[in-house]
Amino acid sequence: MKDKPVILVVDDQPQNIELLAARLAPQGYKIIRAADGEEALEKISGNQIDLILLDVMMPGIDGFEVIRRIRQDETHRQLPIILVTALRETKERVKGIEAGCDDFLSKPVDKIELLARVRSLLKVKAYNDLMSNYRKELESDVATRTKVIQMAEKDFENVNMWGIHSGRAGEADSIFLKENQLALGWMEMIALTNIAPDLDAFKKKIKEKIMEAAPKHKLGFYPMAAGLFLFVHEMKEGDLIIYPSKIDKRIHIGKVTGAYQYFEKEADNYPHRRAVEWLQDFPRTKFSQGALYETGPAMTFFQIKNYADEFLAALSGEKPTIPPDEDVTVSYVAEDVEQNTRDFILKIFSQKLNGHTLAVFVAHLLEKMGYLTRAPGPGQNGAVDIIAHKDELGFVLPIIKVQVKSTEDSIGDLIVSQLIGKLDQEESGMIVTLGKFTNQAKSTAHKESRLRLIDGEDLVNLLLQHYEQLDSKYKDMIPLKRVYVPEPMEEQENQEDETWNTGRLKN
Fold first, then answer.
1. Which of 236, 246, 286, 325 is 20 to 30 A from 476, alpha carbon to alpha carbon?
2. Helices and strands (H and E) in the chain: how many
3. Can you list the pairs that 172-176 forms with residues at least 24 positions away whose Cβ atoms lie under 8 Å?
4. Model confidence over 291-332: pLDDT tens digits?
5. What is the domain extent for residue 165?
6. How do beta strands 181-184 and 272-283 pair?
7. Looking at residue 85, which CATH number applies to its domain?
8. Model pTM?
9. Looking at the DSSP assignment, which residues form a beta bridge with residue 437?
10. Within this chain, do residues 174 and 287 fall inside the same structural domain, yes or no?
């Protein structure tokens, strides 16, 4: 790696070259000199140049032609070139741009301008070099990975890849790894081969069994039916199975070797079985965050699709592990976790907090933000649900009139204008909704500095910011658990991003 950026100075007047060199060398740049266009092209081919300061009017080939020849070489397409010229006519500068120069300096050259333009273009070149190297590495990695995957695909052609869990706490781990059996629970369910090989039939039968066992059972039967149906009818002998063990914390990869069997008298509550041959197991650090995330859904049995190539590559002996700072799936996983949490909160809002109950919650949230709140009496301020203020008597500004809408539809300009009409000269207003606001409503609000629009996403943000201060009844209604998710290292190295997640969504 070079210690200093290398600048090629090209001019047929030696005093011009030395003047530029005298200004650049003290700044830590290495200077290479050329007295004409031909010599400049030779120096470029024999040295690793980072930037060129090029005179226009020279004997032999002029600066414009030098640029054209440089740009014909693919390796120098991005090499920064500054034309140093006494020519000030627009057509000459256009000619330089058309030839491929990046910037201009007018003679006599100003020292501050010279250093500023050189620094700027060297930064651009450094970025272009970084991206070019990254692209080459990526192309090489893709080529290697493709070759490995193709080899693996020959061994496992036309097979599906499935994921399976051994219970919430890994209760069936010994059945999986010691008995070499894939097992699904639910002892009360009959032999699944006795049900017609149709998903609707599975759903109907499982719903019946759930209602028999627990009439008030709230667990959805469709995911359960779908998983059992796949286990019996879609999984084939020879398919691959991915098992993330909660006991030894490793990823086990196996091959299905047997048809579905029902063990009616098994005492371990895992009667639905298939034989498996375990091929290899790997540490979790072998795989990207995206691949690990795909193996951890709430369902017990599921298909692996998005990151199947990683598991195939592991089976084929690919050794490199993706470094954490290069794992682009980290951000996808973090975003997915966050979005799942937000969706969960909004669903609670829409189902359990509507109408007056949402207004009560918003008032409670404002109180946790340091406001005192009161509700207008019947018939007072019909467009206002809450009045918030800082002092106990409600005389000290700011006084905020709040309107709460539990609709998930878009709020239009009419409602915004009506609230504005309810505001006295020094009062502020706020509209809270679970839905969105139309562009026209936003435009109207933008013109009113004392009006704030809070949509569903904004309300979720406020809840997350003040969750710890909420009363227990709201925490019970919206159960969240503090967890940590990785933050992409290119955004902020060696720091974890603390976020909220629900116990239901976390495996």
1. 246
2. 16, 19
3. 172/268, 172/270, 173/245, 173/246, 173/247, 173/248, 175/268, 175/270, 176/243, 176/245, 176/252, 176/276
4. 888 888 667 888 898 888 888 888 877 665 566 666 767 666
5. 161-322
6. antiparallel
7. 3.40.50.2300
8. 0.50
9. 411
10. yes
